[in-house]
Amino acid sequence: MDSTMSRTEAAEPHRQTADDVLAALDSDPRSGLTQRQARQRLDRVGANALAAESPPPAWKKILAQFANVLVILLLVAALISAGLWLFERDSALPFEAMAIFAIVLLNAAMGYIQDARAEQAVAALQKMSAAHATVVRDGTRQSILTTEIVPGDIILVEEGDTVPADARLIEAVSLQMAEAPLTGESLPVTKAIAPIPSDVPLGDRRNMIFSGTAATYGRGRAVVVATGMQTQIGRIAGMLEGAPEETTPLQRELDKVGRLLGTIVVVIAVVMIATILLVENVQGISAIFDVLILGVALAVAAIPEGLPAIVTAVLAIGVQRMAKRHAIIRHLAAVETLGSANVVASDKTGTLTRNEMTVRVIVTASGRATFGGTGYDPQGGLSADGGAAVDGDQLAETLRALTAADRANNAALVERDGRWSVQGDPTEGALIVAARKAGLEREALDARFERVGEVPFSSERKLMSTVHSDGDEPGRLVVLTKGAPDVLLERCSHELAGNEVRPLSETRRGEIAALNDQLAGEALRTLGLAFRTLPEETAGTEAFDDGIEGDLVFLGLVGMIDPPRDEARAAIERAKAAGIRPIMITGDHPVTASVIAAELGLSDGRAATGAELEAMSEEALDDTVREVSVFARVSPEHKLRIVKALQRHSKTVAMTGDGVNDAPALKTADIGIAMGITGTDVSKQSADIVLADDNFASIVAAVEEGRAIYANIRKFLRYLLSSNIGEVMTMFFGVLLAEAIGLTAAGGGGFVLPLLATQILWINLVTDGAPALALGVDPADAGVMRQPPRPRGERVITPAMWAGILLVGLVMAAGTLIVLDACLPGGWIEGSGTIVYAQTMAFTTLTLFQLFNVFNARSDHTSAFVGLFANRWLWAAVGLSAVLHATVVYVPFLQAAFSTTNLGAADWLFCAVVASSVLWVREAGKFIGRALVQGSRPAAA
């Protein structure tokens, strides 16, 4: 049996006859497998389930939180601090080490919680499979768990059933399958059993049904050829497992900043320690440890301890802002990545379009009429060419045609919670919506036309007919028929013109065929409508066959399409204005894709097909993705190749989609965006962002929000780093100029630090924290969507930002040391205070420097006084930081921990005046900068 199954797989079952496939699988089309055969095969091939990837153990997830340059540096500093405390015991507790460990653990905890929401795409794929399936075993129909299905099982599929495994059809009665989640095809696919001699894409394998797809019409019987990971869904799950986890630009840039800060720490510490050991008379272990204390203090000053936690917190705040704009963030770092995307590769069905078939055109003997509105909402007018009202003969013809469309129909239009939907075939649903738009109500049609018979649609006839009694003319039976226009025309002998029936000439047949071709060229799916009256002697007939589908009266043509979303065109224009290139990647037909793309202004209509991509080398594909913006009839493998080709061009790619077929590309793209309403669980779990309203326009809104959040991240980085550089310079020049500013004399001849390590830690973790978070919710700058995306290689901190950071740090250090000197005896400015008083004054001045600096940090170009009160959270944070600092200055047990003393009102005023200098110096620099670039638009933040 194993050998026969392998031959079946190798030969591809869609290319074989049904009998050959059954023989290869040793299965009977009527009795199916025996229970014994099924058990043996289940033992041999395994359960019909997808192989889920084993999650990493908890200890690996915890350790991963510490695999960051900044975190490692903090841990080293904390360990040194703890060791020094154990040696000296100069305080009740190791405050410095405890504080550092606390922030590291907090950051690790937040990261671990995020990892707990790890990808569950494989599990979501498993949920798509039906829990039970109907099979034939031992000649009887029975329901079994889908996990027990094996190759060779005969499965029965009816309308509404989800297919449990890939199978070759052996019987199909009007069977139509919804394969959009797998292939991207927006319309149900009509199935057949005839073999297909050539190798064709999944969407064209009409004799196959696939796991996870659903039957929308008819019924079928099939033999299972693949289960579990061997199914098409299983192949996608395998690709999904193998898709690499990409780090986002922010993560990469923060790692660069961490390495840079680490280098600064090492260089400054080595230089300072070497300088002290060479210049000062350092002898004994205690003195050497004092030098090491300086090294720890410099490390604390150079590293923004709160940076990892504040980044996470600001991104979390961004998540809430994005949710208000219908974008649900699954991964925090994706907030900023979307703002840097310069390519949006979008699926068509359900993303750019509504995934709701809509009748656009109806053509009758008197001309063409157009329907307004889109989707299943029965709102929208009916107008003739040129916008004129439909009236007279054209109105009569249109109403007769739409009556036939509504009655020869098995779908239902329902409204639930203000949302319209179709139960049944979407094409039939679209016909009902068109009838409602024309004013035909279901109750009136039901009352007049009672169905008494039906000839179901079949793929051989390509027609469907229903027979109705006519309440207005008792005893009269009416046949209403819809179907493929070319087939229907052959069955028609007359045409309705106004209220008269006239013979259908050959010339008129040619005209109708040409009109049908014209509609098809507009990417409209066409259907023909017709009717006839049955002879009176058939009134008592209980069963009807396709013999009634002759001598029909042609009513007209309807053209329908899955229309673009109303908001999509404006969203695409806005994306282009923001420097973002939209690309359509779909499994649908090239003509349909091109027409939709042209309507949306996405491209000039040129499309590349999956077959063309298959024949391309990587180099040719690289050239194609630069020029072509529409890709049609593509497979999941093609989507991955397109995304990777774009990434080879250094593009930051956002991929949108809603189906299973989108999952690998969503995973591989820099940012994956899934649809929240129509999207499958697989796409949602594979994505970084889920659109709650399935609206393409929400993507553009999310881009705007992402850019604003990234700008805010730069704001607090500017603030934190300039503050920390100020601390580093204060420590560096304080030790270097210790004798000149009176520190040496105050220390009895030995060297004394200008600030204690615990004081610097307090500034970094507490005083800096709240203002930095408040900058994270700063309002978006005007014109953020008129700027191009941030270049992929651009660092999060630009050279201009570094220049501003260094200037601010120098001003802070100079002001703080001037205050320190003025409070100590000796030095350039004579003072009379103690070392504790002087350090408290310096501590307070540096704190106030940073509170003034937070307003500078809002922009490198715009004055701090522009929109000064726009961010109330910033003012609250500044007030909170000032209060917290006051507690350290005045609360007794905190005075002991931080070596501070009480200050008077004059002391506070002196510190505030000196600290405000950073604001005025920076304002002067911004003014000069704006004057130099007068006439050009300043960058946002």
Automatic annotation (TrEMBL):
InterPro entries: ATPase_P-typ_cation-transptr_C, ATPase_P-typ_cation-transptr_N, ATPase_P-typ_cyto_dom_N, ATPase_P-typ_P_site, ATPase_P-typ_TM_dom_sf, ATPase_P-typ_transduc_dom_A_sf, ATPase_P-type_domA, Cation_transp_ATPase_P-type. GO terms for cellular component: plasma membrane. The keyword Ion transport does not apply. Residues 12-86 form the Cation-transporting P-type ATPase N-terminal domain. Pfam families: Cation_ATPase, Cation_ATPase_C, Cation_ATPase_N, E1-E2_ATPase, Hydrolase_3. It is an enzyme of class 3 (hydrolase). Its EC number is 3.6.3.8. It comes from the Bacteria. Keywords: ATP-binding, Cell membrane, Hydrolase, Membrane, Metal-binding, Nucleotide-binding, Translocase, Transmembrane, Transmembrane helix. It is a multi-pass membrane protein. The keyword Nucleotide-binding applies. Residues 9-18 have a biased composition (Basic and acidic residues). GO terms for molecular function: ATP binding; ATP hydrolysis activity; metal ion binding; P-type sodium:potassium-exchanging transporter activity. GO terms for biological process: intracellular potassium ion homeostasis; intracellular sodium ion homeostasis; potassium ion import across plasma membrane; proton transmembrane transport; sodium ion export across plasma membrane. It is found in: Cell membrane. Residues 1-20 are annotated as: Disordered. The chain crosses the membrane at residues 66-87, 93-113, 260-279, 291-317, 724-745, 751-775, 796-820, 832-852, 873-893, 905-921. Belongs to the cation transport ATPase (P-type) (TC 3.A.3) family. Type IIA subfamily. This is Putative calcium-transporting ATPase. It comes from uncultured Pleomorphomonas sp. The lineage of its organism: Bacteria, Pseudomonadati, Pseudomonadota, Alphaproteobacteria, Hyphomicrobiales. The gene is pacL.
